[in-house]
Amino acid sequence: MGHILLFVNKLHAFAGIKLYLNLLCMIIISLLDGIGIFLLVPMLSLIGIFDVHLGNVSFTSIFDAMLRTIPTAYQLAVILGSFIFVISAQALLQKNQSVLDAKIQQSFMRSLRLDIYQALLKANWIFHLKRRKSDFQHILTSELGRVNHGTTLFLRLITSITFMVIQIGIALWLSAKMTLLVLLCGILLAFISRKFIKHAKEYGNKTTELSKNYYAGINDQLNGIKDIKSNLLEQAHISWFHKLNHDIESNVIEQVQVQSNSQLLYRVSSAILIGLFIYLSLKIFHVQSGQLMIIIILFSRLWPRFTGIQSNLEQMASTLPAFRNLVDIQKECESAVESIALDCLHRSNPFRVKAGIECRGVYFRYDQSQEFYALNNINLFIPAYRMTAIVGKSGAGKSTLIDTLMGLLRPERGEMSVDGIRLTEETALLLRSSIGYVPQDPFLFHTTIRENLMMMNPEASEEQLWEALQASAADEFIERLLLGLDSEIGDRGVRLSGGERQRLILARALLRRPSILVLDEPTSALDAENEKRIQEVLNRLKEEMTIIVIAHRLSTIRNADQVLVLEDGQIIQEGGYQQLSKEVNGVFGQLLRYQTEMNI
Ligand SMILES: Nc1ncnc2c1ncn2[C@@H]1O[C@H](COP(=O)(O)OP(=O)(O)OP(=O)(O)O)[C@@H](O)[C@H]1O
């Protein structure tokens, strides 16, 4: 329940006065509802429509006196007219309150969604490395939907409780003894129903787990659809999907069974109680028929409130795990938040590297409970306006080193500096704002080429776009497209070849006019002709920026000024390309030899 209260506090902080206005509306609606229904029968009996004895029902004397001032011929019309007025006023207010309710709720959900999304984007890279992406999708869609439902239920609960309290007040005024008896039964019912709430919470936990697996599985399988189809793995995945859906179905049916059991209990207990009440009223308390009529009306109004609240609580219990999930992820994101506000970064001037980047005794581990260091005592200097290449076998630590240089990963030990200034978490972020990054697995959005490029620099002119495209050797293939820059490139750029995607990503990175250009395997998907073009491009760009490039294809880095060879997280060789290629027994010489042999 603590988690729900946390959200209620948030809702309170968010909606403020509107929440109280909503509550006030609810109170007035409840009052009008109570007045309209409860008083109709006694009023009709006052003018002799019903032959019931109202006896000593205290409030009737007030209305009796009022009715006497009206001519008899108009009394029925006045009573029915008042009834219609009260109920219509209540309906009108109810309509407006429903809209206000929806507005509060929807704007609260919008702000919640935005908070979570921002928290996710502002969390540091190591946080993202440790989590499954599908968990975020699950939270931002399914879990937020359940929290939305939980918030609706909570607001409905407040309405029901307000309604009930007011109607209890009116009922107490009508007949204290009978009302207290109904209340006692209500409390008894709440006590018996505790186990239903507990079950609902358990099913809620199971729902969270199952929907998390569903999202993760779907995500993985859709990402690997080509793999599935090429390797004829369809049947295995369909079986997985079948089983998971069966589990989801069973969970929902069990949940509905528990809910319908509780509904059965409420209905049967309601019938028993009504029978018991009528019996007690007539045989033990000897109440008059007027009072009995009021008691029946009162009971039929109050009891559904009790049961409504009860089933509301059960449904809320099943949404509790989603609230907990959301709170946990937000807390985790907040504890992993990058120290500088992103909007500050946009306001600050771009950082330009003048001398170079230095690492001294840098160590990094992905898992601090393990002994394995992905970077182990790294000492290096990357000179500005030069091309530095990082090479090594698979798993040597190249990507980890690049991520550390970009400030995505923080060294566990050691120091990093730029132009002699020590890199803190804050300055590392500033440094990142001046980096253009071309990843190994280029990601493009499902939109036009133009929009994909403009994301990096929304103010770029047509001329600047083509300049970047020329620099990355992407101009020719775009000119050939029917819609040129306005061509849609499909999901993750699927309508382009691997090499075209790589060149487009390079153009996008160049649009930012970065001080440092970081390329992770920039030519892995290029043919020899385009590789040569990229080589020339990089050679030219050296004059404007510092270039760091990871390359398995060593031909790409032929013009590198410095080559760093990594093995097991350590730099085992460094020097110019020509110098290292002459050291035939060195790792670089070996790598070069393997590649030359493979190309023959
Ligand atoms: N997110 C991670 N969590 C745990 N260990 C990781 C993670 N990423 C990489 N590693 C480990 O760190 C080591 C260095 O990995 P890294 O990706 O830096 O190598 P690499 O040289 O870039 O390899 P490749 O050329 O295959 O991309 C490897 O042993 C790898 O298993």
TrEMBL record:
State whether keyword Transit peptide applies. no
MF annotations from Gene Ontology: ATP binding
What topology in the membrane does the UniProt record assign? Answer: Multi-pass membrane protein
Q: ABC transporter domain: which residues?
A: 357-593
Q: Does the keyword Methyltransferase apply?
A: no
Q: Which domain of life is it from?
A: Bacteria
Query: Matching Pfam families, A to Z?
Result: ABC_membrane, ABC_tran
Q: Membrane-spanning residues where? A: 21-50, 73-93, 153-174, 180-197, 264-282
> Where does the protein end up?
Cell membrane
Alphabetical keyword list: ATP-binding, Membrane, Nucleotide-binding, Transmembrane, Transmembrane helix
Residues forming the ABC transmembrane type-1 domain are 23-318
Alphabetized InterPro entries for the sequence: AAA+_ATPase, ABC1_TM_dom, ABC1_TM_sf, ABC_transporter-like_ATP-bd, ABC_transporter-like_CS, P-loop_NTPase, Type_1_exporter
Primary location recorded for the protein, binned into one broad class: membrane
Q: What is this protein called?
A: ABC transporter ATP-binding protein
Q: Which organism is it from?
A: Paenibacillus enshidis
Q: Which lineage?
A: Bacteria, Bacillati, Bacillota, Bacilli, Bacillales
